[in-house]
Amino acid sequence: MKVYVPYDDRNPKTRLSPLLDEDERADFVRACLDDVCDAIEATDADATPVVLSTLPIDTEYKNVVRDEPLTPAVSAVLEDTEVPVGVVVADLPLATSDALDRLFASDAGFAVVPGRGGGTNAFVTRNPNFRVNYHGTSVTDHIEIAREVGADIEVVDSFRLFVDADEPDDLVDVLLHGEGRAADFLSERFEVVENEENRVELRRR
Amino acid sequence: MKVYVPYDDRNPKTRLSPLLDEDERADFVRACLDDVCDAIEATDADATPVVLSTLPIDTEYKNVVRDEPLTPAVSAVLEDTEVPVGVVVADLPLATSDALDRLFASDAGFAVVPGRGGGTNAFVTRNPNFRVNYHGTSVTDHIEIAREVGADIEVVDSFRLFVDADEPDDLVDVLLHGEGRAADFLSERFEVVENEENRVELRRR
């Protein structure tokens, strides 16, 4: 099964700019990409990660280049690929092969893991007619699209695939629970502290 | 197995005050409590919810009253209860019996589900010597305490038990994925909208 990992490193993750400068953000998203691809490769399923990027990138994994926005790029590769086929976003720094195995093992026509705030962090479709429409609360749209093409639906319950890396608060969870390059990148630079209001945040070392 | 649900409704959830007034916050946390207790009762495990509150409350479930802060109250009931014993915080509006079944089915000495930002949202201990220390990043402490008393550890991977209801952003996920009273309470009052910056938030109906 091919599992596409969409990746765009042009000025990524601007919402993390209070914590990371532009070069750091680029290094961080690249660490996330490598973690996600490694986790896909290490699953029990016969899953092959394919990086879907807007520019060619230097990677040990397969790389398909489509200079298009996310939605047409993913829909185009879905059209070109035999089912089952998966799509896992690159910015999942807590992804593990165990978590992905639970997604890949689903026999539902459309198995999906929501992201925090309504995103679609990972899915596998066994229905060849499923297409995507990424936006803020895309997960409800994707479930509706899957229903319209006649797929039965499973929502896979994983915080490791639910936590993405959009906001500074997300990085607290990455530091606390991460095991890969992205967590190492953060732990070299930050520690988790509780502030006066008993709230948790990252502080530069 | 007894599963304690700590509950304190005195001026709860002040961080939700941008969205909910004080009466609404009280109604909302009560809806969460009822959802969590119902979900515990509906698991396949032989699990009995016990509300652990600072004042007596009107509930169909068992109620143990201890007028103490969270940490001594939970440690005291753990001391008085045969293992296995569970503790599930009341503010988990996405909790389902399926998610709790995965926690309750673990045969680890200490099985735990982290909360967003390092909290400890749910655990089951089969080791009689485990005690708690709740604070911001308590989950790492609890794992360390479990290790010290000789328990093997399993971190259960569930976004339904990871999402609590501390911040306005959490309520977006509750509205999108919730099925119980807490989600109904919110959907009567709010809808999910994408703002100009393509970010997702709740808006009063």
Question: If you had to describe this structure to a student in words, what would you say it looks like?
Answer:
Two copies of one chain form a homodimer. In chain A, α1 crosses α3, α1 (22-41) packs antiparallel against α6 (181-189) and α5 packs across α6 (181-189). Helix content of chain A is 34%, strand content 21%. The termini of chain A are far apart. Chain A has helices at 22-41, 70-80, 97-104, 138-148, 168-177, 181-189; strands at residues 2-7, 48-53, 62-65, 85-88, 110-114, 120-125, 153-155, 190-194, 200-204. Chain A is built from six helices and nine strands. In chain A, the strands form two sheets. A seven-stranded mixed β-sheet of chain A has the order 3-2-1-4-6-5-7, with helices on both faces. The first copy, chain A, has a two-stranded antiparallel sheet with strand order 8-9. By secondary structure, chain A is of the alpha/beta class. At the A-B interface, α3 and α5 of A face α3, α5 and α6 of B.
Short recap of the structure:
With 205 residues, chain A is an alpha/beta fold. In chain A, 34% of the residues lie in helices and 21% in strands. Chain A starts with a strand and ends with a strand.
Alpha carbon gyration radius of chain A: 17 Å
Largest sheet of chain A: 7 strands, mixed
| Chain pair with largest interface | A-B, 31 and 31 residues
SSE topology string of chain A: EHEEHEHEEHEHHEE
Shape of chain A: globular
Please tally the β strands of chain A and state the result. Answer: 9
Structural class of chain A: alpha/beta
- Overall mean pLDDT of chain A stands at 96
Estimate percent helicity of chain A: 25-40%
